[in-house]
Amino acid sequence: MASVKLAILTLTICSVTGTDLPTVRVQQGTLQGTYFQTVWGKECLAFLGIPYAKPPVADLRFRAPQPPESWEGIYNATVERDWCPQRHVMANTYVGSEDCLFLNIYTHKLPENASDLKAAMVWIHGGAFKLGTGSSAMYGPDHFLEEDIVVVTIQYRIGILGFLSLPEAGIPGNNGMKDQVMALRWVQKNIAKFGGDPNRVTIFGQSAGGASAHFHLLSPMSSDLFYGAISQSGSALAPWAYAEPEAVSKAAFEFGKNVGCETNNATELHHCLLRQPETSLVDEASMKVQFVPTRESSSESGEENFLTEHPKNIISAGKFQDVPFVTGTILYESAFFLEMLSVTHTEDVVSCLRIFAGLIPNLPEPAEIEKFLPKIKSTYYKRNTTTEEGTTDDRLTLTNLGMSSTPSSLQSWMSSPKTVKY
């Protein structure tokens, strides 16, 4: 389906000469974009593969993103650039390049004056912080451009390249989140050139992208970079979206064993990982190790920290950005993950509930949880769970719960009237 969508966008790009193509001057230099026609027949402009940071290669691997470099002449923004390195979820093959910090901008027209600016929406892709892309192959702008807005899609480092944390080696972590911040800063400086209003930027995302949008509400690095946020089936409070530093460090050493970098020394591990080809960093065995956002220690180098406290503590202390926030789940999005639960349709829903009991707030100690599970089942899951259809529906409900980490409890922590649950 994704390839079909890409083909549609590719085939509807207008046939025009180079001199007819639109150009925009941004801080780094001049961009040349292209015209395209949406699936609904609307004529729009696209500026593709815009670099918002230096390529994070060589010594910049595992480092925080650096500001983009300027260029001479005209930058070709008519084609999309590489995905960040990953295993393609369908083909199970390596795709991408470490030189992947790009964004795409789609707009109806270039502004004629400063008052001719529209709201802008910045999409953060999902993929469990190990997969995904901002490419139109996955996330075309067609539906959004039915509205009078500007659309931006971004890419950020994922997996170990985006979330390695080795504080003892001077690698505090969260580089994938810092990539997103760098992209949002670029948007603030340049989006007006494309008709977008920097004071009306909304960030939104799904799954890990939804969790990312929520994380930005909690990070001082993201302050004043957006006006509102939408989290779709993702939350910074979800157990899959955050890990304590000890767990992330343990994952790094486990990963090292998989790629021939077995050691107990953080600096040695870092140096060994720097020597690895990017393909080995996303091979099938290595992808089983999960890297996600974590807490950072204060940096002696003066580097900005994205997150220094547990998300729940930040929310409880009221230290989040007070902007409009919409949160909720996407119906049956989690169908993709059903087999990962390793349960069959003949098993009781209670066994599934046991997996997700930790997501329910204010429960007693684990030993006390068991007695509540049959009551939860009888109250909320009244279908015949001995049938495949009944249990599949219940498992979908439960995995959706795991994706979003109960938006209703999230709302109780974030009591701002600007928070909306859907």
TrEMBL record:
One of its GO terms (molecular function) is carboxylic ester hydrolase activity. Its EC number is 3.1.1.-. InterPro entries: AB_hydrolase_fold, CarbesteraseB, Carboxylesterase_B_AS, Lipase_GDXG_HIS_AS, Type-B_Carboxylest/Lipase. The keyword Glycoprotein applies. It is an enzyme of class 3 (hydrolase). Residues 22-386 form the Carboxylesterase type B domain. Keywords: Glycoprotein, Hydrolase, Serine esterase, Signal. Residues 384-422 are annotated as: Disordered. Residues 1-18 form the signal peptide. Pfam families: COesterase. Residues 397-422 have a biased composition (Polar residues). Belongs to the type-B carboxylesterase/lipase family. Belongs to the 'GDXG' lipolytic enzyme family. This is Carboxylic ester hydrolase.
